[in-house]
Amino acid sequence: MDTWIEVAGLTIHSPVTALTNLLLAVQCAVYARRLRTGREDRGGYWSLFFLAMAVATLAGVLKHGLSYLMTDTAYLTVLWVSSLGSAASVYYAQRATLVSRATSRVESRLTGICVLQMALFLGASMGLGPEMWLVVANTAVGLAPVIVAEASSPRDHERMGLWVAGGLVVSLFTGVVYVMRLSVGPWFNHVDMAHVLMGVSFALIAKGAGELVDPSGCQPPRTSPGPVLVGGFLADGKYT
After folding, report:
1. What is the dihedral of CA 43, 46, 50, 55, to 10 degrees?
2. Dihedral sign, CA of 111, 104, 149, 230?
3. 147-190 residue pLDDT tens
4. Domain boundaries in the chain?
């Protein structure tokens, strides 16, 4: 069942979905600005994560609320922007974890795997189109190791990693809600429920991502002992 409202003579379809997309875009934009450091460090990559999600969710406003005004080409473009924004956010989450959790040598090696995953996603999307199930699958595959790494933070950074890991776990549940189409009614459907979970997820991630970023943008060097990513696995050692 399609829902709609009129605002100043403009018909907006799926108004709750469009509104929650807009709120998510604003939320992500705020976090992106707050975490920005201007460098390729943990805060910088998480800032790019939120910037990519801001773009993806803003595209969702057009996709759900105003699609009837678009040509087929314009609508397809919006779908691509949304899909690519989501995929880019996964990549930046991986880079944020690698830059703070892996040795320099292993970071370089695993970054290549992250790029390969992005390339596979792009190839699949070009062949099948910007399908939502591809976004969900790419997110699950890409974020699972990030969750493990963040949850295995050294003791002195434990809270930071657990906040991020918890937020990412919540984000995976949004895919479950979407795929199973869990809904409480036409005015608050499975997409709206997923958006609520996304908002909670973003808040948790932002809290954890900002733990090591002080107002000057400085972050401690990677010298704390603890488990690190080595060849895709966790091993005890020191950051180098």
Report:
1. 110
2. positive
3. 999 888 655 555 788 899 999 999 888 888 887 888 888 888 88
4. 4-238
Helix spans in 66-189 (H): 72-101, 104-128, 132-151, 158-180
- What per-residue confidence (pLDDT) applies to 236? 39
Residues 6+ apart with CB under 8 A from 42: 96, 99, 100, 209, 212, 213, 219
Check: pTM over 0.70? Answer yes or no. yes
* Run of H or E residues at 234: strand 233-238
Half-sphere exposure of 232 (CA within 13 A, CB side): 7
| CA neighbor of 201 nearest in space, from 22, 27, 16, 2 | 27
93 phi and psi angles, rounded to 5 deg: -65, -40
Segment (H or E) for 4: strand 4-7
What the block records as the tokens of 171 is: 């984000």
Taking the C-alpha atoms of residue 191 and residue 175, their distance in angstroms, rounded to an integer, is 10
Supply the Cα-derived Rg of the chain in whole angstroms: 19
Q: Which pair of structure tokens corresponds to residue 123?
A: 């190839």
CA pair distance 222, 102, nearest whole angstrom? 9
Q: Cα separation of 175 and 186, whole Å?
A: 19
Considering the segment(s) 4-238 as one domain, its CATH architecture is Up-down Bundle (1.20)
Q: CA–CA separation, 43 vs 155, rounded Å?
A: 20
Are residues 210 and 47 in contact, defined by beta-carbon separation less than 8 angstroms?
no
